[in-house]
Specification:
The chain has 323 residues and is of the alpha/beta class. It contains ten helices and nine strands. The two termini are 23 Å apart.
């Protein structure tokens, strides 16, 4: 691993890949500031990290977005793009709420350097305190609930708000209509679905599944770690998993040109997930997925934490981005 290479970008747009891409994105309002991230000097880091301090959106509340670039990033090359949720938890344990991280930079650098995956960058969207569930819940699946079940969920789970507060569709509109065009314009990346991927854990796992189902023309692969099939706080007779499974079975994208990765542990919150394995496997098979383009892996003894996800992160990264 290498120390973080600090990069300071002047206020305004970075240089675009070419004049054509610049003209195509003249209407995109650039973030007011792109700055280096003030990590601890003791933080070991590979590659470089930029931060959009605040990206305004017509769909969701403004938030920071980080962009990780691999060592030797060059505009003479073209990179795939991996969009990830919960951006503040991915790179630096000294600034995360629980002093844990995914170690995305370490794993990505190692896999790129050993030629196991294609060259790629990571776009990390931060979550907002008090807004995470509303942003990351697969909104359309809520319509699969009866009114009685909606009332049950709203009364018994303090993580659930009224259905009208759900914001997953707007979160995806931000990602697809606002953030992706900005990234496509400012960085040397492929813009096609074959090189665009999405990943997250827990509620971010649900949102990654939702993203590839709602926008199969944008994303070709989704990795969903410790996917929170419970949908919110686990409760007895929870109707949310069935509602989410109905959505997945109805909208899972074409397996001929998409791939989906699920996994789960067996401890802490992950202990709720193994019971859903048969239904997930059934849905994947019914939709035409095979072991070549799907996975649903168990990691015995793994709990629901960044420390668990970083220990196995090479597996979903290779699944999505293998050359």
């Amino acid at each position: 691993m290498k120390k973080l290479v600090y990069i300071l970008i002047a206020v305004g747009l970075m240089s675009c890949k070419n004049e054509a891409s610049k003209k195509e994105t003249e209407s995109i309002e650039a973030p007011k500031e792109i700055v280096f991230i003030p990590f601890s000097e003791a933080t070991l880091f590979s590659g470089s990290l930029l931060r959009y301090n605040l990206i305004e959106s017509q769909y969701i509340k403004p938030r920071p977005v980080d962009v990780w670039l691999p060592e030797g990033y060059s505009e003479s090359k073209t990179y795939a793009v991996l969009y990830m949720h919960d951006g503040q938890m991915l790179f630096d344990s000294t600034t995360s709420w629980n002093n844990q991280e995914w170690k995305v930079d370490e794993w990505a650098s190692k896999l790129i350097e050993t030629n196991k995956v294609k060259d790629f960058i990571v776009v990390a969207i931060h979550n907002l305190n008090g807004q995470r569930w509303q942003d990351l819940f697969p909104e359309k699946s809520f319509s699969n609930l009866s009114e009685a079940d909606q009332d049950l969920i709203n009364k018994q789970s303090n993580a659930i708000k009224e259905g009208s507060d759900l914001n997953g569709d707007n979160y995806l509109k931000f990602l697809v209509e606002e953030l992706k065009p900005l990234v496509d314009a400012q960085f040397s990346v492929y813009t096609n679905k074959e090189n665009t991927f999405v990943m997250g854990s827990s509620m971010g796992g649900l949102m990654s599944m939702y993203a590839i189902c709602e926008y199969p023309e944008v994303f070709s692969g989704a990795a969903c770690l410790s996917t929170h099939w419970e949908g919110a706080n686990p409760i007895d007779n929870n109707p949310l998993p069935e509602a989410i499974f109905k959505y997945l079975e109805a909208y899972a994208p074409n397996p001929e040109n998409h791939k989906i990765y699920f996994d789960y542990g067996t401890e802490t919150l992950d202990a709720y997930y193994p019971k859903f394995t048969p239904e997930i496997n059934r849905i994947l098979k019914a939709r035409g997925y095979t072991s070549d383009n799907s996975a649903n892996l168990e990691f015995k003894g793994a709990d629901h934490s960044e420390n668990s996800w970083n220990k196995r992160l090479d597996i979903p990264l290779t699944f999505l981005l293998k050359k």
